[in-house]
Every structure is written in C-alpha cells, then in structure tokens.
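Objective 1b: paired records.
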Amino acid sequence: MSRKKERTPVLTGKKALIVGIANDNSIAYGCARAFREVGADVAVTYLNVSKPGELEALFARIEKEWGQLDILVHSIASAKKEDIKGGLLNCSADGFAMAMDISVHSFIRMAKLAAPLMKDGGTMFAMTYHGAMKVEPNYNVMGPVKA
C-alpha cells in the first residue's frame, strides 16, 4: 500500500508584498492569490507612491510585523488622462515625467527599501505589459514608460 507524501507548499514561511492591487481583475491580485496558494504570507496594498513618507511607512510596518521580506511585486502604472488620450506625440513633458516616476522610479524606491529586509536574499518583480514591446492601441504613453 503506497501513501502519498504530504508536501509543504513551496513558499511556506516566505513573506511577499504585492503593491498595486486595484481590483480582483488586477494582475497583482492574481499574483497575491497565487503566492498565497503556495504558502506565502502576503501583504497587499494600493498606496499612493507619490505621497512623501507612504513608502517608508509601509516598509517600516513590514519590518515591524514580519522582520523580513522575501518577495516584492510592483504592479503600478499611471499617467495623466489627457496625456493618454492625446497620444504619445502630444504627451506633455511633465505628464511623461509623472508617468515615469509612478510607473518606473517607484520600483527603484521600493527596491531600496526592500533590499535591507531581504536578509536571506529575495526576489523583486516589476510588472509591464506587452504594449511595452509592440504598438498597442490606447497604450501609447505607457508603452514607452514601461519599456
């Protein structure tokens, strides 16, 4: 008589922070669900990455609650509505800079805060979209930003 060996889920004991869950259709939501299904402890947020002090407060809380971080998922992108509607060639310089700051540079700021918490190494993901590699209608500003 053979017995099936019970396996410990592969991410048991790992701590994952998922940033950018807008709703249950978000890619970030799917990531959070998948990490949870394989045993990770998951913290989720959709914070304002442009507001001074919010990232620092988030990572301070992660350190206080968990003492470590193993996985960071950055799934944030934003641009001004008028720049998206106007198309890439009509995108304002300040609008493009804002899109870069929120959609790209915020990952660098998060990585800087996450790295000291990844005491045994870790993994950091930044989400993009295939529109970053090919022309995609209605992704005209975000394609170059996320590329």
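Objective 1b, second protein:
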Amino acid sequence: YPKSKDWSTNSFKEIFEKSYKENIDLHLNSFVWSAKYIADLMVKKKIKGSIIQLSSIYGVVAQDQQVYKGTTMKESMTYSIIKGGINNYTRQMASYYGKFGIRCNALCPGGIQTSDHTTKFIKNYKNRVPLGRFCKASDVASAALFLSSDASSYITGSTIMVDGGWTIV
C-alpha cells in the first residue's frame, strides 16, 4: 500500500482507493473545514475581511501530460480533484459569506520549481509557459497581498491565475 502523501501513487494507472480517500481527507477537507471555522469566527466577531485559499492551475485545467515526457513524473488524479474542489468551495463560500462582508478567493499558481525537478522537466515546463519561467513564491505573495488589501474590495468568488500564462494557451 503506497503512502498517501506521495502524489506519484495517485496516478490514474496506480491509484488505490484508500490512498485517494486519505488524500481527499487530508488535503481537501482540511481546506474546507479550516476556512469554514475561520469564516464562522469572523461572522461571530463581526469581522469583515478576506479569506484566500491556495489552489493550483490544475484545479482549473487538466494536467498537461507533455510536460512529464522524458521524466519519471506523472499526472495525479487526486491532486486535480482536490484543487478543483477548493476552487468551487471558495465560490460557494463567497456566495454565502458575502452578506457578512467576507470575501473569499482562490489563488491558482502554476508550478514552482524545486530541487527534485529534473532538467528535462524544467525545460518541458518552461517551454509550455508563455512567460518562459516557473512561478516564484513572491509572485503568489504579491497576488495574496492584493487580495487581502482594500484594492480588491469588490472581488470575491474569483480564482486568480498566477501562472505566467499557462492557462491561456
């Protein structure tokens, strides 16, 4: 039985029901319940503000199998289900909590380069992105800063793509 935290064992080809359920519980349900508890506390204390969920481009579009060519990496069935769930839950939260002055949005970053990415994967990924690079943590932080500020006071229920153009092509 594979470890549930290992996304590589969540491929369509290798998925196990137990691993799938554990990942949904660990990753999707933790986002759902923590956001709900925070929103309910904000309502109780009459705090208006912004809840920002972290999602992924793969919660909006299917995984591009071409970026994995020539690498040992593969798609993850569970990952895209979790991220899509976070995006829709964020919209549902925005619809419900808006009357309390609480805005809910999701940030969907593209891939962030790590030390375990192979040279082939890095090349494949950069060739796929119109801006020709990976997402940086500062790119996500800047978008979060915007969503948490008054500059975004009329934005709720949105999925903000921070992906260098990945989802437009």
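Residues 49 and 102 are 5 Å apart (CA to CA). The longest strand covers residues 102-109.
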